[in-house]
Amino acid sequence: MERRDFIKSSVLASSSFLIAPNTILGKSHGHTAPTDKLNIAAVGIGGKGKADLRGCETENIVALCDVDWKYAKKTFEKYPNAKRYWDYRKMYDELGKSIDAVTIATADHTHAMITADAITMGKHVYTQKPLTHTVYESRLLTKLAAKYQVATQMGNQGASDEGVNLITEWIQNGEIGEV
After folding, report:
1. What is the pLDDT of residues 58-116, one digit of tens each?
2. Global pTM value
3. Inter-residue contact 105 to 94 (CB < 8 Å)
4. Other beta carbons less than 10 A from residue 96's beta carbon
5. Could you tell me if 90 and 63 are in contact, meaning their C-beta atoms sit under 8 angstroms apart?
6. Which H helix or E strand runs over 42?
7. Phi, psi for residue 84 in degrees, rounded to 5
8. pLDDT tens digits for range 127-149
9. For position 26, what pLDDT does the model report?
10. Residue 21: count of CB within 10 angstroms of its CB
């Protein structure tokens, strides 16, 4: 290689870092590529599910499911690129391979089954409380999460409020007598 060609190549290579956009340089320079984002699906999006989705807005919201489209209308409008479903099973069937994680905020008695179905597909899950209604359901979800090695979390914000902590402290201190 001639000296002139070496200098030209070196200058071009080093200057590319000065003019390259963040989309090329990646996370270390403040950019997250679309391929580095999670594809999130949500089941139950009219009430608490709508609030849960706000915590996922840095990711790709790809699918929304709710049985009451009138109640969920504002959420559908907020995420116009997400595919819409009435039945979570159809959503899982159609988009299962492209979904990374699911949020679930449906009627309480449906949480365990929708969560179990997501876990057996290998999806990470955030489910609102109550996660289960029986010890059997709780043990089943624990075993499934371990078997499929997915991250799971149950929403329990109501039990982490300062008021709950204060009452717990009162009870433990015996301030209200024996319980």
Report:
1. 999 999 999 999 999 999 999 999 999 999 999 999 999 999 999 999 999 999 999 99
2. 0.72
3. no
4. 16
5. no
6. strand 39-43
7. -105, 140
8. 999 889 999 999 999 999 999 99
9. 58
10. 8
- State the residue for tokens 């709950």: 164
Compute the C-alpha angle 100/52/74, nearest 5°.
Answer: 105
Q: CB neighbours of 140 closer than 8 A, spacing ≥ 6?
A: 112, 116
Residues 111 and 135: beta-carbon distance below 8 Å? no
**Euclidean distance between CA atoms 139 and 143, whole angstroms:** 6
For residues 102 and 118, is the Cβ–Cβ distance under 8 A? yes
Average pLDDT, the chain: 85
**∠67-97-70 over CA atoms, to 5°?**
15
Q: What distances in angstroms separate CA 12 from CA 21, 22, 28, 72, 101, one per listed residue?
A: 15, 18, 22, 53, 42
What gap in Å lies between CA 44 and CA 63, rounded to an integer? 11
Average pLDDT estimate for 47-63: 94
Q: Which DSSP string corresponds to 63-91?
A: EEE-S-TTTTHHHHHH-TTSEEES-HHHH
Q: Is the dihedral of CA 150, 46, 108, 43 positive or negative?
A: negative
In whole angstroms, give the CA distance from residue 31 to residue 25: 8
Say whether pLDDT at 18 is over 60.
no
30 vs 22: CA distance, rounded Å: 7
